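Please fill in the sequence for the structure shown.

STRUCTURE ENCODING:
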């Protein structure tokens, strides 16, 4: 069975994408959130990034051809912006850390 033939993988990918889209949409109102709302949003984004990191690691570790192609496509796309997947995760982490620091400085 291929990596993408797994119902579990398909469901997880679908859920990850839907959750991410919902968080991004919610993030459009971030400036209107109160302090607790901002903290909750940052926590949810951190959890999302960790889920995404684990999902991508499973792709990387898979011997399935399509999984490897997916990883390679991501690398190629990110390379167009001059970054690696690791740098992408680091930048997301740094952004969330800055958001936390801004919250702390406002208290």
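FILLED IN BY: designer on duty
SEQUENCE:
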């Amino acid at each position: 069975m291929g990596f993408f033939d797994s119902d579990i993988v398909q469901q997880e990918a679908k859920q990850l994408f839907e959750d991410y889209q919902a968080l991004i949409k919610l993030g459009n109102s971030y400036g209107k959130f109160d302090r607790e709302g901002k903290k909750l949003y940052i926590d949810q984004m951190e959890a999302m990034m960790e889920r995404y990191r684990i999902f991508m690691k499973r792709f990387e570790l898979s011997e399935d051809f399509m999984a490897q192609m997916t990883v390679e496509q991501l690398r190629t796309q990110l390379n167009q912006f001059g970054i690696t997947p690791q740098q992408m995760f680091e930048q997301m982490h740094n952004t969330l850390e800055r958001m936390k620091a801004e919250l702390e400085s406002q208290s």
